[in-house]
Amino acid sequence: MEKKLTREEKATQTRARLLQCAEELFIEQGFVKTTISQIIKRAGLGYGTAYVYFKNKDELFVELLDELMGQFYDVAERSFVPKSVIEAAECIKEQVGMFLTLAQKEHQLMRVLKEARGASIVIDQRWSEIREQFIHRISVDISYAQSNGLASRHLDPELIARGWFYANEMFMWECVTGECRYSIAQLREQLTDIYMNGLYIK
Q1: Can 7-55 and 58-199 be said to share one CATH topology?
Q2: Bridge partners for 151 per DSSP
Q3: Of 177, 62, 192, which is closest to residue 130 (Cα–Cα)?
Q4: DSSP string of 2-27?
Q5: Which of 117, 151, 180, 196 has the most other CB atoms within 10 Å of its CB?
Q6: pLDDT at residue 182, as a whole number
Q7: Mean pLDDT of the residues in the chain
Q8: Where would I find the beta strands (DSSP E) of 18-167?
Q9: Domain coordinates of the chain in residue numbers?
């Protein structure tokens, strides 16, 4: 006998179905052309049902974005406790490579994000918040390196973190759109060298 789903389990399934269908349509049509009605139709749900979970497509996309960014946060949150400048360089190089590789791998949804930021104040604001989370994490790593005598103490951790993130973000978008003229291996090496030479003590 098939187990009867609880109300909570049904709600979880319905929400997941909406998110799955929304992602499919966003990737197929782009953010602007996709409507909440199309998402509801593909999910096979009653028109009012979707609005129990999301009030509009912006909210749907923000949830997809947060799920996607969880993978990027996993890279950013990797343990950073180097004992030497050489060890720090290896950690940073690995993070840069993983960050750009992940962006390339998830290029379809990332392209939708690029479009959505120009079409939705809500999504653009969420991306700004996400940026700040990454910048804060980088500044924590810089402060660690400074306090352990690996990096120059006169530099402002947040300022350097902001510049470092923006440099990586620029190449991230180029990797996503296929416009980048460099391989990820080249970017990983060159960006790390610039960062290390400017911040760390030889």
Answers
A1: no
A2: 200
A3: 62
A4: PPPPPHHHHHHHHHHHHHHHHHHHHH
A5: 151
A6: 96
A7: 94
A8: none
A9: 7-55, 58-199
The model's pTM is: 0.89
User: Per the structure block, which two tokens stand in for 44?
Assistant: 């096979």
Tokens 């098939």 belong to: 2
DSSP code of residue 148: T
Helix, strand, coil percentages (3-state) for the chain, rounded to 5, are: 75, 0, 20
pLDDT (tens digit per residue) in 49-61: 888 888 899 999 9
Q: Would you state the pLDDT for residue 1?
A: 47
Which distant-in-sequence residues (6+ apart) come within 8 Å of 152 by Cβ?
Answer: 146, 199, 200, 201
Interatomic CA distance for residues 125 and 169, integer angstroms:
16
**Tokens in use for 160?**
């350097």
Give the Cα separation of 124 and 119 in Å (integer): 8
For residue 13, pLDDT beyond 70: yes
Instruction: Compute the distance between CA of residue 81 and CA of residue 147 in angstroms, rounded to an integer.
Output: 11
| Start-to-end C-alpha separation, the chain | 69
CB 35 within 8 A of CB 57: yes
- For 199, the token pair is 């911040």
Once rounded to an integer, what is the mean pLDDT over residues 96-119?
96
The total number of residues shown for the chain amounts to 202
**Cα 191 to Cα 16: distance, rounded to the nearest angstrom:** 38
**CATH class as words, domain 7-55:** mainly alpha
Distance, CA of 102 to CA of 97 (rounded, Å)? 8
